[in-house]
Amino acid sequence: MAFKVLQSALQQGSAARLGSLALPNRKVIDTPNFIAISSRGTVPHVTPDILSKHATFRGAYMALEDSSTLPIDTYAAHIEALSPDIAIAPADLFHTSVRPPAKKLVRMADRTEEWVARFLKPSRREKLRESGTAVFAPILGVPHHVQWQYLKQLSEDDIDALVGLAIYDVDLLPEVLEHYKPLVPLARLSLHTVTSPQQILEQIAAGVDICAVPFLNTTSDAGIAFDFTFPPPQGPHEHPLALGTSMWSPEHVTSVTPLAPGCQCYACTKHHRAYIHHLLNANEMLAWTLLQMHNHHVVGEFFAGIRAAFAASPTRFEELSEQFVATYEAEIPLGTGSRPRARGYHFKGIANQPKINESKWANFNDGNADAEGAVRPSDATDESAQAARSATETPVVPDESSVELDKKGFASKEEGGALVK
């Protein structure tokens, strides 16, 4: 199990590099590359059989969460039981504030230093090594002067147990690479949120090897099909090109073209825009499955283009990155339709979570405002109101109590002229 740097651009004034990450019983991951984001262990809308047949990405990130306090030994026991290919050592991260006070930052660094030391105790290192689990150490999103002692511990005491770094703030990478040389050869996994392909290019230029791309799932949910390539198409272009196309747009009703020109993914080779548009409007789950397959394929080809350009020349990668920024819009377009109905893996394990899905059914009268000419049943007490009520359509949900219904003969039948209950 090892990460190997194949080509570096440090001499060119950039920290970007080509590499390969070899994990036991897995195909080699060529870097730069990306991993999919899962929710509760599942890539949204994509079943395991589809993943095995059509997925081109080599890994998926899963957050191991629990609503109760999770002791370090318990976390380590879960890691030993699950035997993931990569495990990130526990860290004290932001939860309620993106700008915690200075004292909180110091406590975060101190706790992370203590937790990583306990997680990587000598007896556990050997178990992790035997199970084939690669350990990545977290680099917190706090200033360097706050966590310098923790970083020093990683570079001096824990370096033999580490395969990579999990970076929560890519802006810290230059200082880390400059001051802690033993950490430079390790693989770098970015958990710093990106919202566009342009930001991915910035992270790669900063020295990131593997990116987590959370905007993939949200873009598919919005009904957007990616339409960008690296290298970018040759110009000139009158206007910046869109990074994606909304499949909700009525212009696709009769379009039999693929989601993106030249795309060889399953969705583009087997189906067309009109079909995806129809599925979205019918709220068919297959629509989002096909969009996920397409969008993950496009991002995979995007990274393949980056590796090819860098292999040709680090300077070539920098030139094409500048062209990409100039060619495409800076933001992914917003969807114009409704998102899919949230399922179990969309929800977080938090208390009092607000309702996400809109109700598909409701009373004919909503109880707040009466329909024109209608009488609100709950307020009907006099004879005229009762008469008006009897003339209205029987509601799906009864508006009266069981006692009132029983008085009026609900669920009763007549036999031989007698009323039977």
UniProtKB/TrEMBL annotation:
Q: Which residues form a coiled coil?
A: none
Query: What is one GO biological process annotated to this record?
Result: tRNA modification
Q: Where is the tRNA-guanine(15) transglycosylase-like domain?
A: 69-329
Q: Which Gene3D superfamilies match?
A: Queuine tRNA-ribosyltransferase-like
A Pfam family that this protein carries is TGT
User: Biased composition, Basic and acidic residues: where in the chain?
Assistant: 404-421
Give the GO molecular function terms.
Answer: transferase activity
Start and end residues of each stretch annotated as Disordered: 362-421
Q: What are the UniProt keywords, alphabetically?
A: Transferase
Per the record, where are the segments of Polar residues compositional bias? 383-393
Q: What top-level branch of life does the organism fall under?
A: Eukaryota
Q: What PANTHER family does the database record attribute to this sequence?
A: QUEUINE TRNA-RIBOSYLTRANSFERASE ACCESSORY SUBUNIT 2
What is the protein's name according to its record? Queuine tRNA-ribosyltransferase
Provide the taxonomic classification: Eukaryota, Fungi, Dikarya, Ascomycota, Pezizomycotina
